[in-house]
Amino acid sequence: MAPDSKSSENTLQAICYKRGSLQLLDQRKLPLETVYLPIQDATDGWNAIRDMVVRGAPAIAIAAALALAVEVANIKDFNGTVGEAASFLEMKLDYLVSSRPTAVNLSDAATKLKEIISKAVSSATVPENVFLTFIEAAEVMLEDDVASNKAIGSYGANFLQQQQKNPMRFSVLTHCNTGSLATAGYGTALGVIRALHAKGVLERAYCTETRPFNQGSRLTAFELVHEKIPATLIADSAAAALMKEGRVSAVIVGADRVASNGDTANKIGTYSLALCAMYHHIPFYVAAPLSSIDLSLSSGQEIIIEERSAKELLNTRGGLGEQVAASGISVWNPAFDVTPANLIAGIITEKGVITKSGDAFDIKDFVKKVGCNSSV
Ligand code: MRU
C-alpha cells in the first residue's frame, strides 16, 4: 500500500505525501506560521529545495524523489517508449541534484533510483511500469528514513550512556536542525537527543541559534518545545562559555557529507563547536545515516561547500526580513564547513557507531562489515 505520511505519529512533518500528492511544510515561515506548499513536479521540488522551503540532508533527498514521483504519477498518457520513460526520469533526477551541492544524500538517492530505473527497463512492457517502479522506490525512501533515524537515536543514546561517567545525566549541545523537519521524521542528532529524553537521562538539550538562517532558533527550538524536551537556546557565540561552565556532556551534530576519512561537512559553525569541544575535553559526535557518507571522497577537502545569498546575512530572518547590516558591505556566506575527523569522537549511524581504531576512522571497513551500500 502506498504510504500516507500524514497518518503516522504525532510529530512535526516536513513532508506530507500520499501517492500523486506532495505537500512540503514551508520551513521559512516557521515558527510563526504553519503553511504547507503543494509540490506538483520536479521543478516545484527544485525550487522548494533551493529556496529552503525544505532543508536538511535527508529531507531534501526524499522531497526531491517524491516531487518527481508525484509528477510521473499524474502523467495521463506518456507519449514515449519504456527507454524514453527511463531517460525522462534520469534527466529529472540530474536536474534535482543540481538544486543544492553539499548534502550527498540527494545525489546518493538519485544514483540508487537510477539503478532501480535501469533494472525496471528490462522487464517493463509499457512506460507506466517504469514510472510505477520509480514511485514505489521513492515511497520506500520515505518509509525507511524514519526507521533509520530511530536506529540512530537508539545506538547513539546507548553508546553515550556507555561512554559517560554519569550515564543517568546528560546535557547535549546541538547545532542547526536535524530533527523531524530535516528528515522524514524523528531526526538524526535530534533523534539521539529524543532517545536520551525517552530514557529519562537527558537533563537538558542546548540548541544554537545557527546564524544566518536560524535553523536552531526557528526550527530546533520549535521541535524541542513541541516535544516538551527540556531545552535552552543559546547564541552561536555563547557555545564556548557554556562548555567552559561545565554544562555540556556531549556535542552531537548532523552531517551533510562525510568523507571516507571521517571529515564531515555540516552547517556553518560546526567546526567552531568541534574546536571548542576539543579544548574543553567534551566528546563531539556526528549522527548521520550511511547515505550521508561519501566513500568516493578521501577527505573533506574535496567537498563542495555551497555559498548562499548575501541577503541571508544582511537581513533578518535568514534573508526573509528587513535589512539590518550596513549597505555596501561585502559578504561571505558559506552554508557549511568541514570538521576534520581528528575532532570527531564517533559517527553514529543506523547500523552502529563508527569509532576510531587508533587515530583514524576506517569507514570503508565499517560499511563493508554492515553490508550497506553507500555512495561509492
Ligand atoms: O542548510 P540546511 O538547513 O539544509 O543545513 C542542514 C544541516 O546542516 C544539517 O545539520 C544536516 O543537513 C543534517 S540534517 C539531519
TrEMBL record:
The record marks 176 as: Transition state stabilizer. The keyword Isomerase applies. Keywords: Amino-acid biosynthesis, Cytoplasm, Initiation factor, Isomerase, Methionine biosynthesis, Nucleus, Protein biosynthesis. GO terms for cellular component: cytoplasmic stress granule; nucleus. It comes from Corchorus capsularis (Jute). The active site is at residue 256. The lineage of its organism: Eukaryota, Viridiplantae, Streptophyta, Embryophyta, Tracheophyta. GO terms for biological process: L-methionine salvage from methylthioadenosine. It is an enzyme of class 5 (isomerase). Pfam families: IF-2B (PF01008). Gene3D superfamilies: translation initiation factor eif-2b, domain 1, Translation initiation factor eif-2b, domain 2. Pathway: Amino-acid biosynthesis; L-methionine biosynthesis via salvage pathway; L-methionine from S-methyl-5-thio-alpha-D-ribose 1-phosphate: step 1/6. Its EC number is 5.3.1.23. Catalyzes the interconversion of methylthioribose-1-phosphate (MTR-1-P) into methylthioribulose-1-phosphate (MTRu-1-P). Belongs to the eIF-2B alpha/beta/delta subunits family. MtnA subfamily. This is Methylthioribose-1-phosphate isomerase. HAMAP family: Salvage_MtnA (MF_01678). It comes from the Eukaryota.
